[in-house]
């Protein structure tokens, strides 16, 4: 499944931990946005790892992207870095 994950975390230490978790599963696209291509088991593992790190004021939002949505993704401006990406 293709996911977009966005997060809003105020504490640098926790934000860095969440970034590193997401980096294991997908590609960084913008400051607080990742795209991932993972299966259901990996999603549960990722969510568990994130829940163990975030605090009460932190927010993480996960969007599942359908095939139609993925085909219609457009980049405007500078393209995101593609290194360390599992997203095709």
UniProtKB/TrEMBL annotation:
Domain of life: Archaea
Residue numbers binding Mg(2+): 8
Keyword rRNA-binding carried by entry: no
Keyword set, alphabetical order: Antiviral defense, Endonuclease, Hydrolase, Magnesium, Metal-binding, Nuclease
CDD domains for this protein: Cas2_I_II_III (cd09725)
EC assignment: 3.1.-.-
Function per UniProt: CRISPR (clustered regularly interspaced short palindromic repeat), is an adaptive immune system that provides protection against mobile genetic elements (viruses, transposable elements and conjugative plasmids). CRISPR clusters contain sequences complementary to antecedent mobile elements and target invading nucleic acids. CRISPR clusters are transcribed and processed into CRISPR RNA (crRNA). Functions as a ssRNA-specific endoribonuclease. Involved in the integration of spacer DNA into the CRISPR cassette.
Annotated NCBIfam families: cas2 (TIGR01573)
UniProt-listed PANTHER family: CRISPR-ASSOCIATED ENDORIBONUCLEASE CAS2, CRISPR-ASSOCIATED ENDORIBONUCLEASE CAS2 3
Protein name: CRISPR-associated endoribonuclease Cas2
Protein's gene: cas2
């Amino acid at each position: 499944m293709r996911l977009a994950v966005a997060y809003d975390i105020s504490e640098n230490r926790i934000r860095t931990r969440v970034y590193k978790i997401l980096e294991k599963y997908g590609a960084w696209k913008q400051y607080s946005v990742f795209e991932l291509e993972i299966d259901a088991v990996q999603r549960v593992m990722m969510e568990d790892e994130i829940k163990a790190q975030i605090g009460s004021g932190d927010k993480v939002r996960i969007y599942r992207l359908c095939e139609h949505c993925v085909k219609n993704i457009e980049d405007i401006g500078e393209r995101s870095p593609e290194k360390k990406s599992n997203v095709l």
